[in-house]
Specification:
Radius of gyration: 13 Å
Oligomer: single chain
Number of helices: 6
Largest sheet: none
Shape: globular
Order of helices and strands: HHHHHH
Structural class: mainly alpha
Distance between the termini: 18 Å
Length: 118
């Protein structure tokens, strides 16, 4: 999986302008890139995670938010960077309808982890 730094403002604007279609793509890419960064390449793919989220009327999406936060904490711990309770933060934001903020925070964490890899 090719892990790329994304401009967060551009991703948010594209998600809004495309009425959420770019947000779906972003969700799938976030899942696959975080799995790759954390070494969990056999975990649920982004496409399947999105499908499970649709089928369960977002119940899986809430679980997904928490798990992505845990995986990012593993990535940060592996790089000797400070960890946080990202999973709980993403879950709480999503419960209140701010999933796009969680996506932006995930992307920021990915971008920062890529900066330290260089």
């Amino acid at each position: 999986v090719m892990i790329e730094k994304r401009n967060i403002a551009t991703a948010v604007i594209l998600s809004i302008v495309t009425c959420g279609i770019y947000g779906i793509y972003w969700f799938i890419k976030l899942n696959d890139e975080i799995n790759s960064l954390s070494g969990n390449t056999n975990d649920t793919s982004g496409g399947m995670a999105f499908l499970f989220t649709l089928i369960t009327c977002n119940i899986y999406g809430l679980y997904w938010m928490y798990k992505m936060g845990e995986k990012l904490d593993v990535v940060y711990a592996g790089k000797g960077m400070p960890t946080q309770s990202r999973g709980m933060l993403y879950l709480i934001l999503s419960l209140f309808g701010f999933s796009i903020i969680s996506y932006a925070l995930m992307q920021d964490s990915i971008n920062k982890s890529l900066d330290t890899a260089q």
